[in-house]
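Review form for a predicted model. The reviewer records the input and the model, then writes brief findings.
Reviewer: anonymous (R2)
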Amino acid sequence: MSPWIKVVAWFELWGGIWGILAAARGLYDHPGPLAAGYLAVTVLACLFFAATAFAGYELARSRPRGWHLSRLLLFLQVAQFSVAGISYAAYVGAALTAGVSGWVVQAGGDIGSLFRIRLQDVDSAFTLSVNFVAVAAIVMLRTKGGPSKGEASGV
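Model under review:
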Protein backbone atom coordinates (compact mmCIF):
# COMPACT_ATOMS: atom_id res chain seq x y z
CA MET A 1 0.00 0.00 0.00
CA SER A 2 1.21 3.48 -0.86
CA PRO A 3 2.40 5.58 2.08
CA TRP A 4 0.03 8.34 0.91
CA ILE A 5 -2.94 6.00 1.23
CA LYS A 6 -1.82 5.27 4.79
CA VAL A 7 -1.79 9.03 5.44
CA VAL A 8 -5.38 9.26 4.15
CA ALA A 9 -6.39 6.31 6.34
CA TRP A 10 -4.84 7.81 9.49
CA PHE A 11 -6.39 11.23 8.84
CA GLU A 12 -9.78 9.57 8.45
CA LEU A 13 -9.40 7.37 11.51
CA TRP A 14 -8.11 10.02 13.92
CA GLY A 15 -10.12 12.86 12.37
CA GLY A 16 -13.28 10.77 12.77
CA ILE A 17 -12.50 10.07 16.41
CA TRP A 18 -11.68 13.74 17.00
CA GLY A 19 -14.97 14.74 15.34
CA ILE A 20 -17.00 12.42 17.58
CA LEU A 21 -15.31 13.87 20.65
CA ALA A 22 -15.91 17.43 19.43
CA ALA A 23 -19.60 16.70 18.77
CA ALA A 24 -19.99 15.19 22.24
CA ARG A 25 -18.25 18.22 23.74
CA GLY A 26 -20.64 20.49 21.85
CA LEU A 27 -23.60 18.73 23.45
CA TYR A 28 -22.00 18.97 26.88
CA ASP A 29 -21.15 22.67 26.54
CA HIS A 30 -24.47 23.70 24.96
CA PRO A 31 -26.25 26.19 27.23
CA GLY A 32 -29.91 25.60 28.00
CA PRO A 33 -32.27 23.08 26.45
CA LEU A 34 -31.27 21.33 23.24
CA ALA A 35 -33.44 22.05 20.20
CA ALA A 36 -34.50 19.13 18.00
CA GLY A 37 -32.63 20.58 15.01
CA TYR A 38 -29.41 20.89 16.99
CA LEU A 39 -29.73 17.28 18.16
CA ALA A 40 -30.47 16.07 14.60
CA VAL A 41 -27.38 17.78 13.18
CA THR A 42 -25.26 16.46 16.07
CA VAL A 43 -26.48 12.91 15.42
CA LEU A 44 -25.70 13.31 11.68
CA ALA A 45 -22.25 14.64 12.59
CA CYS A 46 -21.57 11.67 14.89
CA LEU A 47 -22.68 9.22 12.18
CA PHE A 48 -20.51 10.99 9.60
CA PHE A 49 -17.47 10.98 11.90
CA ALA A 50 -18.01 7.35 12.96
CA ALA A 51 -18.35 6.24 9.33
CA THR A 52 -15.17 8.14 8.46
CA ALA A 53 -13.23 6.59 11.35
CA PHE A 54 -14.45 3.15 10.25
CA ALA A 55 -13.47 3.90 6.63
CA GLY A 56 -9.99 4.91 7.79
CA TYR A 57 -9.65 1.72 9.83
CA GLU A 58 -10.73 -0.41 6.87
CA LEU A 59 -8.55 1.54 4.44
CA ALA A 60 -5.50 1.07 6.70
CA ARG A 61 -6.08 -2.67 6.38
CA SER A 62 -6.47 -2.43 2.57
CA ARG A 63 -9.98 -3.80 2.66
CA PRO A 64 -12.14 -3.01 -0.39
CA ARG A 65 -14.89 -1.67 1.86
CA GLY A 66 -12.43 0.94 3.19
CA TRP A 67 -11.52 2.08 -0.33
CA HIS A 68 -15.15 2.45 -1.41
CA LEU A 69 -16.39 4.07 1.80
CA SER A 70 -13.43 6.47 1.88
CA ARG A 71 -14.15 7.69 -1.65
CA LEU A 72 -17.81 8.27 -0.83
CA LEU A 73 -17.07 10.15 2.41
CA LEU A 74 -14.29 12.20 0.79
CA PHE A 75 -16.72 13.23 -1.95
CA LEU A 76 -18.96 14.69 0.78
CA GLN A 77 -15.99 16.82 1.91
CA VAL A 78 -15.13 18.41 -1.46
CA ALA A 79 -17.64 21.29 -1.60
CA GLN A 80 -18.59 23.73 1.12
CA PHE A 81 -21.34 26.21 0.37
CA SER A 82 -23.77 28.77 1.67
CA VAL A 83 -26.69 29.95 -0.45
CA ALA A 84 -30.16 31.30 0.30
CA GLY A 85 -29.80 30.74 4.05
CA ILE A 86 -28.63 27.13 3.76
CA SER A 87 -25.01 26.25 4.50
CA TYR A 88 -23.01 23.02 4.50
CA ALA A 89 -19.41 22.24 5.36
CA ALA A 90 -17.75 18.98 6.34
CA TYR A 91 -14.19 17.78 6.58
CA VAL A 92 -12.27 15.24 8.62
CA GLY A 93 -8.61 15.52 9.54
CA ALA A 94 -7.65 18.51 7.41
CA ALA A 95 -8.97 21.06 4.96
CA LEU A 96 -7.29 23.44 2.56
CA THR A 97 -9.99 25.48 0.86
CA ALA A 98 -10.30 28.15 -1.80
CA GLY A 99 -13.43 29.72 -3.15
CA VAL A 100 -15.59 32.80 -3.43
CA SER A 101 -17.73 34.62 -0.91
CA GLY A 102 -19.87 37.17 -2.68
CA TRP A 103 -17.33 38.88 -4.94
CA VAL A 104 -14.32 38.10 -2.75
CA VAL A 105 -11.87 35.26 -3.38
CA GLN A 106 -10.87 33.57 -0.16
CA ALA A 107 -8.66 30.72 1.01
CA GLY A 108 -8.18 28.92 4.31
CA GLY A 109 -7.01 25.81 6.03
CA ASP A 110 -7.54 23.79 9.17
CA ILE A 111 -6.32 20.68 10.91
CA GLY A 112 -9.33 19.19 12.67
CA SER A 113 -12.83 18.00 11.91
CA LEU A 114 -16.01 19.89 11.12
CA PHE A 115 -19.59 19.00 10.24
CA ARG A 116 -22.00 21.89 9.85
CA ILE A 117 -25.47 22.14 8.36
CA ARG A 118 -27.45 25.30 8.87
CA LEU A 119 -30.94 26.09 7.67
CA GLN A 120 -32.23 29.65 7.84
CA ASP A 121 -28.70 30.97 8.29
CA VAL A 122 -29.40 34.73 8.31
CA ASP A 123 -25.70 35.62 8.22
CA SER A 124 -24.95 33.64 5.08
CA ALA A 125 -23.82 35.35 1.92
CA PHE A 126 -23.29 33.27 -1.21
CA THR A 127 -20.15 31.20 -0.61
CA LEU A 128 -18.68 28.29 -2.53
CA SER A 129 -15.36 26.66 -1.57
CA VAL A 130 -13.50 23.55 -2.64
CA ASN A 131 -11.52 21.44 -0.16
CA PHE A 132 -8.34 20.52 -2.01
CA VAL A 133 -7.26 18.01 0.65
CA ALA A 134 -10.38 15.94 -0.12
CA VAL A 135 -9.81 16.31 -3.88
CA ALA A 136 -6.19 15.16 -3.54
CA ALA A 137 -7.21 12.19 -1.38
CA ILE A 138 -9.84 11.12 -3.93
CA VAL A 139 -7.27 11.37 -6.73
CA MET A 140 -4.81 9.26 -4.72
CA LEU A 141 -7.45 6.60 -4.04
CA ARG A 142 -8.47 6.52 -7.71
CA THR A 143 -4.94 6.39 -9.10
CA LYS A 144 -3.81 3.70 -6.68
CA GLY A 145 -6.67 1.53 -7.92
CA GLY A 146 -7.64 -0.13 -4.65
CA PRO A 147 -6.13 -2.99 -2.75
CA SER A 148 -4.41 -5.81 -4.58
CA LYS A 149 -5.91 -9.28 -4.34
CA GLY A 150 -3.34 -10.26 -1.70
CA GLU A 151 -3.97 -7.12 0.38
CA ALA A 152 -7.74 -7.48 0.17
CA SER A 153 -7.65 -11.04 1.42
CA GLY A 154 -5.18 -10.25 4.20
CA VAL A 155 -2.38 -12.41 2.68
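Findings: The chain has one domain: 3-148.
Further findings: Residues 3-148 form one domain.
Recommendation: see findings above.
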